[in-house]
Design goal:
This protein is of the alpha+beta class. Helix content is 18%, strand content 35%. It has 6 helices and 16 strands. Strands 9-16-6-7-8-13-12-11-10 form a 9-stranded mixed sheet, sandwiched between helices. β10 and β11 form a beta hairpin. Keywords: Cell shape, Cell wall biogenesis/degradation, Peptidoglycan synthesis, Transferase. InterPro entries: LD-transpeptidase, LD_TPept_cat_dom, Transpep_catalytic_dom. Belongs to the YkuD family.
Length: 287
């Protein structure tokens, strides 16, 4: 098992601090702490289809393997049990990032403080800080007749728990709205393993809670005016609702859904000027 070390902001596992003092000149030069993400890469990334019942019997006590299985099948604990068969990595020794499509680093996002990406084709999301991947996981987006809108959005208001505007019997936990007038946001909700929502971006609770705490809310000048927008969110790609689940292709081609640095760059590039404009505005309006 190989260890990979990536530099990232705001994600501390190991910290190195270097300081240089120049007493004669009366100055002190200090290098800010550098945070390091330690990742464990599996020896290989390949997949196989197995009987869900048999696999769970062997792995039900292994929380790490379960988390990877939920992610690779774009589902959660309750819905995985309902599946006759599932796709799982042959080598489960790596971190979850190595089984999902987003790259660990994107140089083109180095100047972007925070950004969240949602991929329709792969039904996954990724959060980056200054070009470093800090979180990734599965999502279930809008069903065919209620597809999630694509493009650039910004997080605005959030609520630990709120009621769906589509059905007042649906309770949405860790909800973060990204399209206020459309009522679209990301939040915790059941993940059946395919696009099934009414336009929102469903997440596992652990991921919804992370993004809820990590992303920034908007700042309002008054009830009608947004002074500062929140964290940029880019929703991209299309989904073939008539075809089989695209992640099943991983059994024959483990890189079938892989997104390269260039792929992410091309996805974000059309929105980059708007993102940087809003980021500059946010920095200018800090208290």
């Amino acid at each position: 098992m190989k260890k990979i070390h990536l530099l990232a902001l705001g994600f501390a596992i190991t910290t190195f601090v270097s300081c240089k003092q120049e007493v004669a000149k009366g100055t002190v030069e200090t290098t800010a702490p550098t945070k390091v993400i330690e990742r464990h890469e599996p020896k290989e990334v390949s997949y196989t289809v197995v009987s869900t019942k048999e696999w769970l019997t062997k792995n039900e006590a292994d929380s790490t393997s379960l988390r990877i299985a939920y992610a690779t099948n774009r589902t959660d604990a309750e819905n995985l049990k309902k599946m006759d068969s599932i796709i799982v990595p042959k080598d489960l020794s790596g971190d979850i990032e190595f089984y999902l499509p987003f790259p660990l680093e994107v140089a083109a996002l180095k100047e972007v403080n925070k950004i969240i990406l949602f991929s329709y084709p792969s039904q996954t999301f990724a959060a980056y800080e200054n070009g470093q991947l800090v979180r990734t996981g599965p999502t279930n987006m809008g069903r065919e007749k209620d597809q999630t809108p694509t493009g650039l959005f910004f997080t605005n208001w959030k609520a630990e728990e709120t009621t769906s505007t589509f059905n007042d019997e649906w309770d949405l936990k860790w909800n973060y709205n990204i399209a206020n007038k459309l009522g679209v946001g990301f939040h915790q909700y059941a993940l059946p393993g395919y696009p099934a929502s009414h336009s929102c971006l469903r997440l596992q609770e652990r991921d919804a809670r992370y993004l809820y705490d990590w992303a920034d809310q908007w700042v309002l000048a008054d009830s009608e005016t947004v002074k500062v927008k929140g964290t940029p969110v880019v929703v991209f790609g299309t989904y073939d609702f008539k075809a089989s689940k695209p992640w099943l292709e991983l059994t024959s081609d483990p890189k079938a859904l892989t997104l390269s640095e260039e792929d992410v760059k091309q996805t974000v590039q059309p929105h980059l000027s708007s993102i940087m404009k809003e980021q500059k505005n946010k920095e200018a309006n800090k208290a």
